[in-house]
Each structure stands twice: as C-alpha cells, then as structure tokens.
Amino acid sequence: MKDVPAIGLLAVSDRASAGTYQDRGLPALRAWLNRALVGDWREASAIVPDEQPQIESALRRLCDEEGCGLVLTTGGTGPAPRDVTPEATRAVAGRELPGLAECMRAAGLRHTPTAALARQVAAIRNQSLIVNLPGNPKAIDENLAAVFPAIPYCLDLIGAARLETDPKVCTAFRPRHASTNRQR
After folding, report:
1. Are 58 and 10 in contact (CB under 8 A)?
2. Statement: the pTM of the whole predicted model exceeds 0.85
C-alpha cells in the first residue's frame, strides 16, 4: 500500500465528534474524490471537535504519521468564535497558498453572498498540502471543483504522491515539460 497515495480527511465539528450529529462533510469529500480521482488511494480520516489543539494534533498525525500528501478538512472555517480550523492549519503549516483560498471564496460567491465570510486556508506542511473546506456538502463540491485542477501539480512540486484525475470530472493542470523533481 506504500505506493498508493494517502489522502487525509478531517471533519471539524463539536456535534459530530460527540456523536450527536451525523457528519456530512466526510461523505461528501469521499464521494467527490471517488468521482474525480483515477486509480487507488488510501483514506486516513478523523472527526475532532472545534478545539485548536485537537485539530493541530490531527493535522500533524495525518501529515507526519499517516503520510498523507493531501489533507482536506471540512468545517470550522466561518467567523463564529469556535471556528478555528484556519488558525490550527496555520499553526502546523510552513507556507500558505493564498491563491487556493481566494479561488474557493470566489467560487462560493457565485452561489451565496455568505462565501465572503469564509476563512479557508490552504498551506503546506513538509510534503503535505492542507486545504480547508466548508462543512456544507454542496459548498464542498463547489470549492473542490474550483481548486482541484491545481492540486495534483502542487502535490508534484512538493514531492507528494502523484494523483491522477478523471478529465470528465476534473482536468488537472500540469505543464507539458515541467520537472516534478525540481531542485534549486
């Protein structure tokens, strides 16, 4: 299974982590990835409450121990006081990719004015890309459709496992002659 790309899925929700609410974010992420990706992939997932230390710990585990080249989070990206997923992501990541977050907000604004309140972050931790998504399944689909074409090439550039997409669902951009093992 070592050659199979690992993808981390993290739901951030007080109610879902307590078992009082059926999480809808992780099933939406799985469904989108199963439609969009070609080839096998391995899932590592967790549901944690809206507590920054627990989110940080889960992100570290998914990136460092589970070896996930891509980690998608769902929930905790709004303006409410308990929405701390972006802060947790920044705390564990080294470099942000603001363009991905800007694309997600722009895509969301086509559907709802409250997308302007979204605080998603995309950032790199070593050889892992972490992307924060909203918790609503419809918004997850819209956001992934907006940014996923750039994600496989980003993973190539940071040395993560290669992901291939189904062009009927998502056409991944890769330069024709780009080297994926660029050294400076």
Report:
1. yes
2. yes
